[in-house]
Request: fold
Amino acid sequence: MLYSELIGTGSGVPERVVPNDFFNYLVDDANEWILSRTGIRERRFAAEDQATSDLATLAAKNALDSCGMDSAELDCLIVATSTPDMILPSTACMVQKNIGAVNAYAFDINSVCTSLVFGMDTADSLIKSGKCKTVMVIGADTYSRILNFKDKGSCPLFGDGASAVIFRGSSEPKGIIQTLVKSDGRGWELIQVPSSGSRKPVTAETIENMENTFFMEGKKVFVFATDIIPKIIEELTSKAGIKPEDLDFIIPHQANLRIIDHITKKTGIEKERFLLNLDRFGNTAAASVGLVLDENRKNGTIKPGNLVLIMGFGGGLSWGGILLKA
Reply:
């Protein structure tokens, strides 16, 4: 049996750090207001000349360096993003050129904040089918480009960043053990950029009405997240024939610390087992879980043999998880 072994990880984040007090124009004492509601202290915003592909390229190069691999060894390159450089061509093809992955085929996946999880599931399928031996998946987003900076309910939540993972086929029982990906299109309207495509093209009028920016029904999304996360944990561990208490760590989508607080109470899983970095990066959408994974592999928190459950949820509505043996 083939397994998708994780052989490399990498991150790419902008240099610009944006503290909470940047949003003092929206609310008095923005630092306390944001921190108490979300757990976020700061985030990173891309430079004016920095696009999603640039952050993705940095993460990709760092992932290749982490395992001493040449980009020509890649069979497939997937970029998971909801903020591509442009509608076409794919951001993945831009990254392919930048890193010289001459033997890979490249394409994008968009499942909003669940995109990296969907991409990892796709990589696992490609490897287990025998179609590909080595696959890189990059989660990358620059939400600072699509935020409505007049909306205090959403704009302080997000930051920009990219994370990359490399999987290679192996006969050893490690790497991806089990996956879960799901969606419910009945909730697509809860998270959207209304004027951004063929349904409502961008015009002077839609720009004036801020319809070309991110919109989210925050309360409904919070309810969705707190309901679906325990189900991801229970269903994924059950499919793998283990129990939640067998998990060493859980890497949740880095959306809001209050969601994690709610989940720890609901499931009884100790907060210490949830790995987080949202206080420093905010919600980096598709990049979020990969940034946490890379950081904790490199600082030694995640050790070989650890069982790690990675999960995401977001627009679509979409959700899913990856059970990984480090």
